[in-house]
Each structure stands twice: as C-alpha cells, then as structure tokens.
Design goal:
Elements (H helix, E strand, L loop, with lengths): L1 H7 L4 H7 L41 H13 L4 E5 L2 H12 L5 E5 L4 H11 L5 E5 L4 H7 L4 E7 L11 H11 L2 E5 L4 H4 L9 E5 L13 E5 L2 H14 L5 H11 L2 H20 L4 E5 L9 H7 L6 E6 L2 H11 L4 E2 L9 E3 L20 E5 L5 H12 L1
Parallel strand pairs: 2-3, 2-4, 4-5, 5-6, 10-11
Antiparallel strand pairs: 1-7, 6-7, 8-9, 9-12, 11-12
C-alpha cells in the first residue's frame, strides 16, 4: 500500500482518477474492478481471512477500490465511502464529538447539513453557533472552550461563498479543533483542502464525483492514520456504508471527473456572464466573477471556479419561482453535479429546512447546476426563462 501511495504522489490527477485503486483484476485481467455483490466470505479456518475480508459491512473489495481512489485524489492517507453525504457527516460528527462539545458552522450551508446539526446532533447534547466563515476573525470570535470542529463549505451552498482554507486551518490549529471542509461543490479536481491544512474533507459523491445523477453516496478523506482508523471503526459500527454497485458507479464517474469539471466550469462562466448583463437579474453569485468578494481567494486555492451559479431576480420570490418553472433545458430538480443542467428554488426546495434560521436564503434566489450541454443552448434557455 505504501508503494502505491508513493507512486501516486508522482502522478497527475487525471491519471490517478483512472488508475488509483483500479489495478486490473488478478484472475481475469479485467481493466474495470468487478462488482463484488456479496455479503460474506469463506474463511480459511477460524480467523483466517483472505485479504482481510469477512463481511461486507466491514469491508468489500469494490468499496476498497473506491476508497483507495478517493484517498489518492485528495492526497490523503485514508478514504471512506458511505451510503450518502449525510451518512458520512453523521459518522464524522459522532466520531469527533461528545455531549457538551461545540461546533462552529457556516452562515451559508447545505440545508441537510444544517438540519443534521439543528435537529439531530443538538439533541445529543452538541452545541453549535453560526459564523461567516469567509471572515477568519468572525470564526475566531465564535470559538468556545469546547469547540472541537470548525465546519466549512467552500464554495458554499447556495450563495457560492468562499472561505480561505489555509487561514481557517490556522484558526482551528490554534483552538485545538479540527477543520472540516465540505468540498462537494469544487470536487478534488478543482480544490485540495488537505494540502491547505484541512483535517477532514467531506463529499456527497452523489454530485460531481458520480456525475451522472444515478447514484447516492458520500465520502470522507483524512491525512491522519489514527483519525482514519477511528472513522473506519465507527463506519463499521454504524453501518451506513456504500454498497458495491454504488461504489462501482462512483468509480466510473470519477474516471471522467477532470474533463467534466473543465466543461462545467467553462459553461458556468458563460452563464454567469449572461446573467450579469441581464436586466431582470439583480445579483449573480459566482466566484469566477472579478466582482465576487471571494474571487481572489478562490483563484488562489481552486484550479477553476466550478459549475454552480446562483442569482437573484427582480420581482421577488414569485418571479424566481416562475423562472424555474419556465426553464426547459434546465431541468427543475434538486441535487447538482450531473452532466445535465438543473435549476431550482433553494428557499422552497433544497434549503427549506433553514427557513427562519441564520442560514435562511433569499426568496428571490435561483440556483443553477450548469451541465456539460452546448453552452449556446443553455444560454438560449435561460434567456427565454428570464423573459
């Protein structure tokens, strides 16, 4: 394993995406890892495990291949694959936290993450407070003696806020806390949080990693072997693991992640340009725009600016809903990161759970997941949707 890791350090991302953890099958030479659709394994005598496999909740060869791939892509030492992004987050929080501990969460975040803190983890006795994570001093001011985790999304969902990962890693280190970065919007191709000082990277692999809107999954990647073992223990004890077919689908998606992200980013930049000049759009959120408050930091820590764009429309909430309903090529739906373009109203859809909280999103906000179709067709559809 160490030899493979050393070799991976000398390979570029596009190569790792296709080959890390993906050795040809020893029996047949198949270049794609098999789907080991199996629950249990024959043991060579009591305690005599073949390759460490005994039961597929504990380990499965297809999931192992994905987990090795995930670790390589983020430059980490351990990757773990889960049944969903929220399953990964739940495992992480229950590994790192105890009743009475405190977490700093961002003022802009995925609604499901907020719900996990506010409706589930809080009942377990964990406290949380909200800070603008784009401002390291605001995060520092939110710290408490029992702060164990600083949670960051960058770019954030749905307002595309940018946080300085390197600066926040210093804040976390000084406080004796772990910096957790949800890297779902960027993917490991566009951003490498561990190299910037983060302790844990979180993904919904449902999104850009899978990339085809046909699988639900999640992942954690860490650089610390001890933490990796603790997470693996809880993963097995709690059981929300990625099944073998789901793991295989995510691996298939990852192979084209780099080329897809290049196209997503290029298309989103054109979409943001159109929206910026449209008379019915009052504000555009895209870190690739020079006027975005986090543009310089994003340019420093990201390879490109990603495929997510949000914007506010003149006329208020109902006007935003009507734009969503008039779109044709942009499919009205939740989720993001697939090859097809999606449009949604966060306030009534993905972020309904944050209504009335410090994370509440504007009612006139529309969020786009810009796909890899012809950008001219996407621009034409947005033009007619906006009217």
């Amino acid at each position: 394993m160490s030899d493979q890791r050393d070799q991976a350090h000398h390979q570029q991302f596009e190569t790792l995406a296709i080959h890390a953890g993906q050795e040809p099958d020893e029996t047949t030479g198949a270049v794609v890892p098999p789907i080991y659709q199996v629950s249990t394994y024959k043991q060579d005598g009591v305690g005599g495990l073949r390759g460490g496999y005994e039961y597929s909740r504990s380990a499965n060869p297809t999931r192992t291949a994905l987990e090795e791939n995930l670790a390589a892509l983020d430059g980490g030492r351990r990757g773990l694959a889960f049944a969903s992004g929220l399953a990964a987050e739940d495992c992480l929080l229950r590994t790192l936290l105890s009743p009475g501990d405190h977490v700093v969460i961002p003022n802009d975040a995925y609604g499901g993450t907020f719900r996990l803190f506010a409706k589930v983890v809080q009942r377990w006795g964990v406290e949380w407070s909200v800070a603008d994570t784009s401002d390291p001093q605001a995060v520092r001011d939110a710290l408490r003696p029992r702060t164990k985790v600083i949670w960051v999304e960058t770019p954030s969902n749905p307002l595309l806020g940018i946080s300085d990962i390197a600066a926040l890693s210093g804040v976390a280190r000084d406080a004796g806390a772990k910096l957790v970065v949800d890297n779902t919007f960027a993917s490991p191709y566009l951003q490498q949080p561990l190299s910037l000082g983060a302790d844990v990277v979180v993904y919904s692999t449902t999104k850009y990693m899978g990339g085809h809107s046909d699988v639900v999954g999640g992942a954690l990647v860490v650089n610390d072997d001890t933490l990796g073992e603790e997470l693996a223990y809880h993963q097995n004890a709690m059981g929300a693991i990625a099944g073998p077919f789901d793991a295989w689908l995510v691996m298939r998606g990852i192979k084209t992640l780099a080329v897809r992200m290049d196209r997503h980013s290029a298309n989103a930049a054109r979409v943001a340009e159109l929206l910026t000049s449209h008379k019915k759009v009052t504000r555009v959120y895209y870190p690739g725009l020079s006027g975005h408050p986090g543009h310089e930091i994003a340019a420093k820590q990201m390879r490109s600016f990603g495929g997510m764009v949000s914007f506010q429309v003149a006329g208020g909430e109902q006007a935003a809903v009507e734009v969503c309903n008039r779109a044709r090529l942009f499919t009205l739906g939740e989720s993001l990161g697939g090859v097809e373009s999606l449009i949604e109203h966060p306030g009534r859809m993905t972020h309904a759970s944050v209504a009335g909280s410090a994370l509440e999103v504007p009612g006139d906000l529309v969020r786009l997941s810009v796909g890899i179709e012809s950008v001219d067709d996407l621009l034409a559809d947005l033009g007619q949707a906006l009217g």
